[in-house]
Design goal:
Blueprint: H1 3-28, H2 31-49, H3 52-59, H4 63-85, H5 89-111, H6 129-144
């Protein structure tokens, strides 16, 4: 075998390995928005479990509504991770749907009127840009489910 032939085979093998790695990464990239979304919802949902009554009082919600928000946050976080693991598209879609009223409530009740997430005198909890991004992700999960878009 000549040096040129060996070099050509090595180069082709290296390119093939790179393509395989790219395909592997692309096939698992859907986990990135899932993990980001789930971490936010699980953190907030589990945090509310410590004092659901306090959350209800702070937001001026009936206790039953506060429990629904808490459950929806936890279900949304678990669902976007469990859906693809269990290969159940409906779980991912339902998780996206569960998050929507929570996010719409957060936008309307707390963050409306200011876009920037930076707290201000009029919006001590910040604006709605973060919640709007999460709402778009929830819509995407509800629409796409486990399909790789």
């Amino acid at each position: 075998m000549t040096a040129i032939t060996a070099d050509t085979r090595h180069h082709a093998s290296s390119r093939s390995g790179q393509e395989s790695l790219k395909a592997l990464a692309a096939g698992h990239a859907h986990w990135l928005p899932r993990i980001a979304f789930a971490s936010v919802f699980l953190f907030h949902g589990v945090d509310k479990l410590v004092n659901v009554a306090g959350f209800a009082q702070m937001m001026g919600l009936p206790l039953a509504a506060a429990w629904l928000v808490t459950f929806a946050e936890i279900a949304a976080g678990v669902g976007v991770l469990a859906g693809p693991l269990l290969r159940r598209d409906w779980i991912t879609r339902l998780a996206g749907v569960a998050a929507m009223p929570v996010l719409l409530g957060a936008i309307v009740m707390v963050h409306w009127g200011q876009w920037s997430f930076v707290p201000s005198d009029s919006h001590p909890m910040g604006g709605m840009e973060f919640q709007a991004v999460l709402l778009l992700l929830a819509l995407w999960f509800a629409a796409v489910g486990n399909r790789k878009a």
